[in-house]
Amino acid sequence: MVVTHESAADLGALIDALRQQARHDDEIAIVDNASEDGTAELARAELARAELACAELARSGTVVETGANLGFAAACHIGVDATKAPLLLFLNPDAVPEPDCLAQLRAAAERHPEWGAWQAAVLLDSEQVNSSGGVVHFLGIGWAGDCGRPVALLPSADREVAFPSGAAMVVRRSEWERLGGLDAEYFMYCEDLDLGLRMWLSGVGVGIVPAARVRHGYEFDKGQMKWFWLERNRWRTVLSVYPAPLLALLAPALLLAELALLAVAARQGWLAPKLRAQRAVLAGLPRTLARRRAVQATRRVGAARFAERLTAVPDSEYLAAAGRPALTWPLMLYWKLVRRVLSVLAG
Q1: Concatenated DSSP letters for 32-67?
Q2: Beta carbons within 8 Å of 248's beta carbon, 6+ residues apart
Q3: pTM confidence score
Q4: Sign of torsion over alpha carbons 314, 237, 213, 124
Q5: CA distance 318 to 323
């Protein structure tokens, strides 16, 4: 499953890698969000070339043109509906699986029946990690674990993570259907984080398979609209997914952090999208509360256990608090207190 938008420069390498690893029952669905650089035409040509070169791919390639930029999550739903496979692999168009990647991801389905989703190790290059699994701060801020660090730091065995990277993510179709898949209202950013936390809330695990590796052309800075979606979607997840006891205990920290983020946004030049995000959160509150009722109906774990998937350590180079003891220690002490209260409430 590949969602594209102006992706002609990247698609050939991805389809070639998939061709080399495909099985006879694999399906490739490419959903194009109104590209104007010939992505859809190139996708059809590349799939046809791949099918000629590999009989196992015959009639397995599908290209769907949405006619509009629907965003990542909504396009993923279209791709899922166009396929029948029990395991759904989502790949960014600039993510190229290394040899044996798909086989390793398939094998994980048997090794970890308790997992509803898992990811490959996502690499920037042969020496640097892009994501060793998503990390989520208790304030709802998520990031790619170990981003920019040496590949040698990758775990040697499969392990659990807070959420899977949407750049190279496998989801069981049964879990996708049970939980409703990615939330189409997110448009872009945080939809994988939200899905991962919803899985944990519902009692289903999420992990990483380090033996499966993907090269990804990642860059963090993609304009001010990124900050709008990151902040708007962060609040949608926190308000929808966090269990009530956790949300109540975190309310003071969330409000103080909001004031601090306004100052950070003003200093760094993204105050306008931050303010737009706040307005969008308030305007969308009725829909978010309705979503909360649906999400909480799937809950199978208590607040204390859910909190195990969150962290107090802002361990990312993209966070203002990273490496600043004056900011990190209060957060860690606050989180320790919250965890203790949750344990007492759990009995």
Answers
A1: E-S-SSSHHHHHHHHHHHHHHH-GGGTT-EEEEE-S
A2: none
A3: 0.94
A4: negative
A5: 11
Listing DSSP states for 109-120 in one string gives: HHH-TTEEEEEE
CA–CA separation, 72 and 184 (whole Å)? 8
Mean pLDDT split into 10-residue runs, the chain, 347 residues: 94 93 90 95 88 54 94 97 96 96 98 98 94 96 94 95 98 98 96 98 98 85 83 98 98 95 93 97 97 98 98 74 70 96 93
| Residue 267 CB burial class (10 angstroms; 0-12, 13-18, ≥19) | exposed
Stated as kind and residue range, the H or E segment containing 209 is strand 205-216
Q: What is the pLDDT of residue 317?
A: 62
d(CA 168, CA 216): 9
Length of the chain equals: 347
Q: Where are the alpha helices (DSSP H) in the chain?
A: 8-21, 39-53, 72-81, 101-111, 173-179, 191-201, 224-241, 244-268, 271-283, 285-296, 303-307, 325-346
Distance CA 228, CA 266 (A): 14
Q: What are the residues facing 163 on neighbouring strands?
A: 134
Distance set, CA 245 to CA 41, 148, 239, 338, 339 (Å): 51, 35, 12, 10, 11
Q: Residue holding tokens 């409703």?
A: 180
Question: Domains of the chain, with CATH numbers?
Answer: 2-216 (3.90.550.60), 224-346 (no CATH)
